[in-house]
Amino acid sequence: MTPKNRMDFEKELFESAMNHLSIEELLKFPKVMEIWQQAEQKGVQKGTMIILLDLLEQRFQQVPEWVVSKVQTADTELLRAWLKRIIHANSIEDVFV
Q: How far, rounded to the nearest angstrom, does the alpha carbon of residue 27 sit from its chain's CA centroid?
């Protein structure tokens, strides 16, 4: 079997499983569970990013491009730390020190 044929076969098998198995059954497969967890983490990270940018805009009116870039590349832990700093920050720069 060539690598391309193998990839096609694996894709077909995966699609068939997706159509015939419940979420609970699919999550028993380690790779599916890993993908699910990564997607869930990305969703949490994106939601935290959106909330942070919204709060920054509400508190400081304008959000500079350097802040948007910084927020878009941060992990969830750092985003949460910045969210907490908004409460006591006197300026947008204070959030990111």
A: 19
Convert 13-46 into a string of H (helix), E (strand) and C (coil): HHHHHHHHCCHHHHCCCHHHHHHHHHHHHHHHHH
- Whole-angstrom distance, CA of residue 79 vs CA of residue 70: 10
Nearest to 36 by CA among 46, 23, 49, 47: 23
Q: How far apart are CA 73 and CA 59, in angstroms?
A: 21
State pLDDT tens for residues 13-71: 777 766 777 777 777 778 877 887 888 888 889 999 999 999 999 999 999 999 999 99
How many residues comprise the chain? 97
Give the angle 12-14-15 at the CA atoms, nearest 5°: 65
pLDDT of residue 2: 79
pTM attached to this predicted model: 0.68
How far is the C-alpha of 63 from the C-alpha of 33, rounded, in Å? 37
